[in-house]
Amino acid sequence: MSVRSWKDSIRRWSAALAIFGMLAGGISIASILIFGNLSKPAPIAAPRTPPPLPPKVPAPRDFTIGVVVTAQDCPPGGECVYTYTIEPQFIGRNPLPADELRIEYQVTGGREPQNGEFTVRGTEAKIFKDVKLPGPPGAALKAEATNVVVRPVFGPSLSSTPVPTPMPIPAG
Predict the structure, then answer these.
(1) 3-class secondary structure for the chain?
(2) In this structure, are residues 121 and 102 in contact, taking their beta carbons and an 8 Å threshold?
């Protein structure tokens, strides 16, 4: 065989392979169009963000309570009487429930531990101010939450309830 016949032979095979490739591609595309699903592809779901944490009853560790001494009376050679106010702060990760919470706490640093409580509803807290506690001179008062009690809320909020007008009593 001559070089020329080899070249012709390679050209024929190349042409045959090219025609076979185009034929196979055409048949593939036709079969996809005929037998394939032509509906719109399903949308890709966006990654889900986790749902917000549901309100749950917080633990005593979810509150920090600062003690601010507003006055002290220390007679010479005697025991002091401290006047203090607490500064509670919610540090929990979950949101507070809608119910009113009663947080019980204990103040130490005085002559004896003193128990107290405050209430929280929403973002408002009700506390006692100017509480008195006897203790030694130079006492460092500290408070720690000891218990959280849920008080369910029944009916409308007290701040939005109109005060009813009393009915007149008929004279008779």
Answers:
(1) CCHHHHHHHHHHHHHHHHHHHHHHHHHHHHHHHHHCCCCCCCCCCCCCCCCCCCCCCCCHHHEEEEEEEEEEECCCCCCEEEEEEEEEEECCCCCCCCCEEEEEEEEECCCCCEEEEEEEECCEEECCCCEEEEECCCCCCEEEEEEEEEECCCCCCHHHCCCCCCCCCCCC
(2) no
Instruction: Name the pairing type of β-strands 124-126 and 80-90.
Output: unpaired
pLDDT digits (tens, 9 = 90+) for 130-161: 999 999 999 999 999 999 998 765 555 444 44
Could you tell me which residues come within 8 angstroms of residue 9 by beta carbon, excluding any fewer than 6 positions away?
none
Residue with tokens 């008779």: 172
Give domain limits for the chain. 1-36, 60-154
- Residue 111 has a CB neighbour count (10 Å cut-off) of 13
pLDDT in tens, 18-43: 898 888 888 888 877 777 766 666 67
List the 131-135 sheet strands across, edge first.
Answer: 124-126, 114-121, 100-108, 142-151, 63-73, 80-90, 131-135
The CATH number given to 60-154 is 2.60.40
Q: Output 43-48 pairs: Cβ under 8 A, ≥24 positions apart.
A: none
